[in-house]
Amino acid sequence: MAKYQQAGIASQYHRPYSLLNYFGHKLWHFSVRILGHIVPSFLARLLYRLWFVAPRFAFPDIEKSIRDQAHIQHLTINNRSITSYHWPGTGHQRVLLVHGWSGRSTQFVEIIKVLNMAGYHVHAIDFPAHGLSGGRTTNLYEMSEVLAHFIEDLGLLDAIITHSLGGPVAALALRDHPVANKVICISAPSSMDRLFQRFTDLLAIPNKITARIISLAKQEFGREIMRDLSLIVNIQALACPGLIIHDEDDHDVPFVNATELALHWPRAELLKTTGLGHHRILRDPEVIEKIRTFIPS
């Protein structure tokens, strides 16, 4: 259960490093330093390509159950094999779920249950290289293009609910297809600059290698890539109300992202939680109830 506006309990959710993890991190940092000194171009290209590989994780039993209740279609969008889900409701309101990097649509299992029980039609897709969709690599531009094609067919939506990198992806898609009455961003990174800095800090990547990686991205996608993909930029093009939900103990996407996003999104409400981290926030009853009551127009 969310504990709003409270602090000081994050430490109980940290698992201590095992010796294997400790020495694994030591070996990684040592390797990055050595390769960065000897073959910096090779290391930059390697890390750049790793950025597009989305690790897949097994479906827990609870997700298998909700997956089996969906009407599943296997679509081809932009020459990619995409899996879509529809949990039919009894009413007329429709909601779209947008998962994040290395995520999948069924991660919203508790949200799906509550909204479906309230009569909502719930739609979702697994992005390329995610969930039940095909492929091993993808990027945020491709994810956004796939989503744009999907929402174009769906038409007007009462709400879009996003998690993590699903926020920037959805905002980019909605920039040219404003089909949502409301947008809810859960645990979303506010900008690509902040997200990329987090990535390089966690992997202890030297500054000179970081600069090379950014250069490779600009060569492939254009010099404005950081601006193009930033949530705080694209969200300003949306006229609809928003809800930002973020946990102050989120160690994947720190809470400062939420405060920055709120500053750039004047029509959005900010809900801060404590002790839920980056993933449990999707299963918290109070968070889900807030989402349910926010959606009606």
Specify the biggest β-sheet.
Answer: 8 strands, mixed
Q: What strand line-up does the widest sheet have? A: 1-2-4-3-5-6-7-8
What is the number of helices?
12
The backbone outline, from C-alpha atoms, is: globular
CATH class identity of the domain at 62-195 and 223-294: Alpha Beta
Share of helical residues: 40-55%
State the distance separating the first and last CA atoms: 26 Å
Write out the CATH superfamily name of the domain at 62-195 and 223-294.
Alpha/Beta hydrolase fold, catalytic domain
Structural class: alpha/beta
Strand content: 15-25%
Question: Taking all residues together, what is the mean pLDDT?
Answer: 87
Q: Kindly report the CATH topology of the domain at 62-195 and 223-294.
A: Rossmann fold
Number of DSSP E strands: 8
Radius of gyration: 19 Å
CATH architecture of the domain at 62-195 and 223-294: 3-Layer(aba) Sandwich
Note the run of SSEs as H and E.
Answer: HHHEEEHEHEHEHHHHEHEH
